[in-house]
Design goal:
The chain is an alpha+beta fold. It has two helices and four strands. The protein is extended, with a radius of gyration of 19 Å.
Length: 97
């Protein structure tokens, strides 16, 4: 049962989506159709979606969401070299005789 909230801010179109997954509400923010990285909320409870969705909107309007996205992108770019190492085939060490 997804729920969404649309709004405009600083010339951008935002959507806040709340989805019930395994008894827990998960809220994500989208800007012009793309997910905003690093910005997500989750909790359980009956009236939680509306509260989380309003918090997400306030975070976008105050600039906190932009800062969280910047941090998430920076962390992701720092992790890329580690991901490339993880993609290399595992080699067994050679035993010397």
């Amino acid at each position: 049962m997804p729920t969404s909230l649309w709004f405009e801010h600083a010339g951008q179109s935002y959507e806040v989506r709340a989805t019930l997954i395994a008894g827990k509400w998960v809220v994500r923010v989208f800007c012009n159709g793309d997910v905003v990285p690093g910005v997500g909320y989750s909790a359980s409870g009956g009236g939680v979606p509306a509260i989380l969705m309003q918090q997400a909107r306030r975070d976008v309007e105050s600039g906190r969401a932009t800062e969280l996205a910047r941090i998430a992108n920076a962390a992701d770019s720092q992790m890329e070299p580690l991901r490339s190492l993880a993609r290399t085939p595992n080699r067994r060490p050679r035993h010397r005789k």
